[in-house]
Amino acid sequence: MRKTLPFAIVTGVGFFMLVQYFVPREEFEIIYEWSLDWIIVIGCFAMLLGLWSLTMASIHKVQRKTPGWGYSVIALIGLIFMLIVGLYPGQASLVKGSIFMLFFEYIYIPIQATMFSLLAFYIASAAYRAFRARTILATILLVSALIIMLRLVPLGPLSSVNQWLANFILTVPNMAAKRAFWIGVGLGATATALKIMLGIERTYMGRD
Amino acid sequence: MRKITISLLTIFLLTLFVNISFSQEEPLPPSEVKASDTPNDNGHSITVTWKLSPDDGAGKKNVVAYEILRSDNPEGEFEIRGVAPAGESRFDDKGAKEKTDKNYLPGHKNFYYKVRAKADKTFAESEVSNPAFAYGQWYHTGKTTVLIGVILFSAFALYFINLARKGKKLFVRPLAGIEAVDEAIGRATEMGKPILYIIGLGSADMIATIASFTILSRVAKKTAEYQTPILIPCYDSVVMAVAQETVRAAYLEAGRPDSYKEENIFFVTSMQFAYVAGVNGIMLRERPATNFYLGKFYAESLILAETGSVAGSIQISGTDEIAQIPFFIAATDYTLIGEELYAASAYLGKEPVLLGTLKAQDWGKALVIISLILGALAASFNFQFFLNLFRVQL
């Protein structure tokens, strides 16, 4: 029963989603939108689960003094502080200038931007590994990358030749590879959906 | 000389006068205004077509736009529903389906249309159109190609699943990333270090995330057999709940329910870079022997994979996000590219029924390749009928 009912729901909803793609009627649209709303509702309830999980994991780390437990203390303080500030009565939390938004804009966003900026350094280190001309394929990759990057640099009389080569790489081999990728992904996604709808793949459902 | 100047000035003034008088003159109205239900819609739209005014692009050339007017009574007051530019002879009067919306267009109710050709300051109205009402269709004819594709692919899948059930051995090509899974788990067991499994930033309704759950189940079963801890930091709380159930079931199947630790599958945050910071911290503190990145990834993919590389972990990645594939290829040891992510669970499970869908995928690809070759030939020889078979209207 623990698997039969969820399986019936998955199959029913799966087939409905397939059918509604081909039926443009209003009734089908309403049920489709209604089911999308359910995802949001479930997500909201599950957020409480997430909150509980984060709190308990952090408390356990602090209690056991596991390596880096200080970060868990900071996480807990941040969580409680933002909860208080966000739920403080008499003040709309998502209004510009509120304490909640001040912390969000002047502490959280700069920290997030700092993390994102790490990407620039990691691109350099990953590119160094990827572009080492050890094999014929890696050499082709290196040469192609150089041509693509140099199209943004003025090269005098060579500019037009490089521009043509860069356009050729982007619109012919690159586009062909991308389309092959998308066709494969489309077929793979359909196969996965079919496996789930037919009940061939049920591992994600948990225990019997 | 004087005469020539006066003549030129006269011609100029005359031309100016004619232009001004034409632009202020009423254009001829559009004709043959017809209204009909918009096909392949939800039943709240009416399509209006008309024959262009003779002064649109010709004659006085003074038509600048067409205004489309609607009324529920041919004798009643008409209201403007939209504007079409000069040269356009079709307008879809799309209404809202909610009754409370100001733009609501009820279905199964007759409406009449008029089209007004607008000049600079004047206009001319057409005759009233035939009555027309909107209604929803039961089938979207523009999606027939997709339907045929789905039926064909499903037929392939069912055929091969049936073959597999009858015991026929199906050959599938080996994938390096999948072959490395056993080795990666074995390495973690030998080193006595945990395995880090990252499902990505996708929500539980995304197909890549679902594919990741199916792989997680196989990986967790092996970690249960080898008694190797598996850590799963989650970005989404629904994903966390599903992952917990999946791993619990895998441990039960492996006969090690006592080894299952729910606290190893935990929620971190739903903020992208805060999540990255949390996971990077785990990588550098716990130094997992193996990192799996399987699911939906965005800009964080390279930061995670490079940190894992610095931590000295074996890394296996897979996503259907094309922009992240190069990063994973550069920074991880093995990468499952696109469809391989979906195929991985069938490879790991080695169940014949699951392999049946892989064979169907191969046949689907063969069909696509044949269609591409035929399509290229048809386009080269301008064989429109064949090309039109593949047009999809969304």
Poorly predicted regions of chain A are none
Low-pLDDT residue intervals, each spanning 5 or more residues of chain B: none
**CATH T-level fold name of the largest domain in chain B:** Rossmann fold
The SSE string of chain A, one letter per element, is HHHHHHH
Strand fraction of chain A = under 5%
Give the strand order, joined by hyphens, for the main sheet of chain B.
10-9-8-11-12-13
The Rg value of chain A, from CA coordinates, equals 26 Å
CATH architecture of the largest domain in chain B: 3-Layer(aba) Sandwich
Q: What would you call the structural class of chain B?
A: alpha/beta
The number of distinct helices of chain A, counting runs of at least 4 residues, comes to 7
CATH class of the largest domain in chain B: Alpha Beta
Q: Number of helical segments of chain B?
A: 11
- What proportion strand of chain B? 15-25%
> Residue-averaged pLDDT of chain A, rounded?
89
Architecture overview:
- The complex is a heterodimer of chains A (about 210) and B (about 400).
- In chain A, helix 5 (about 135-150) crosses helix 6 and helix 6 packs parallel to helix 7 (about 175-195).
- The mean pLDDT of chain A is about 90.
- Chain A is built from 7 helices and no strands.
- The N and C termini of chain A lie close together (about 10 Å).
- Chain A has helices at about 5-20, 25-65, 70-85, 100-130, 135-150, 160-170, 175-195.
- Among the domains of chain A are: about 1-70; about 130-200, no CATH class.
- Chain A is an all-alpha fold.
- With about 400 residues, chain B is an alpha/beta fold.
- Chain B folds into 2 domains: about 25-125, Sandwich (Immunoglobulin-like), CATH 2.60.40; about 170-350, 3-Layer(aba) Sandwich (Rossmann fold).
- Chain B has 11 helices and 13 strands.
- Chain B has helices at about 1-25, 145-165, 175-190, 205-225, 235-255, 270-285, 300-310, 325-330, 340-350, 350-380, 385-390; strands spanning about 30-35, 45-50, 65-70, 80-85, 90-95, 110-120, 125, 195-200, 230-235, 265, 290-295, 315-320, 335.
- In chain B, strand 9, helix 5 and strand 10 form a beta-alpha-beta unit.
- In chain B, helix 2 runs antiparallel to helix 10 (about 350-380), helix 3 crosses helix 4 (about 205-225) and helix 9 packs antiparallel against helix 10 (about 350-380).
- Chain B is elongated and about 105 Å long.
- At the A-B interface, helix 1, helix 2, helix 4 and helix 7 of A face helix 2, helix 4, helix 5, helix 6 and helix 7 of B.
